[in-house]
Task: structure prediction
Amino acid sequence: MAFVRNLRLVSRLSSMRQSAHGHAMSTKGTVVELRIYELKPEYFKPFLELIEKHWHIRCADSKSLGFWISDLGGINEVIHMWQYDSLIDRALKRKKLLENKEWQKGFLPKFFPMCSKMTNALLSVTEGSKLTTDFTQSSPAVYELQICEGQYPQEKVYSSEFLVGRFTGVYGPINTEYLLFRYIDGNTAFNHALQRNQGKSIKGYSRFMIPSAWSPMK
Result:
């Protein structure tokens, strides 16, 4: 039943294409969907095997920015981000995914019992910043996702660290900024986090994340 409701919802959203011309300003521009899944402990490894097997289907029409495993700041959690041209673009691609027979029968019925909680948020690239994905991939790079109340203080972004993207929450938590950092290793990430957290100017939540083997960002 949940699948049917989701399919009806994205069908309704995609039908907005016919009436969107008068509201182009509300749908133009890159949007990013952040998804966080909390898995039941006994299903964490089977879920990773399941999503890796079906990853090609999930990425057939949607652009994945990355898929990470939360190592600190969350237990049995995975985080993934998806880039779309607009809300209508997202709705159309979600509809196509949900209509895929292999996704319907091979992934969803196995996935739902594995997951204890799913959350998502829609983000836009913060004005005056940019999303940078054309860096040289390397291992063992690690990532940090900062979710901050209000505007993130610019002086806390150091020239010695690599900021992949800075985003503003649109749906989900509002008056919130999301910053995705990339580091060459865990020690470097820790040292920057320690330096950043000195003082009381930042309020929010942080996750230390490891990219999966199939993540576009390594």
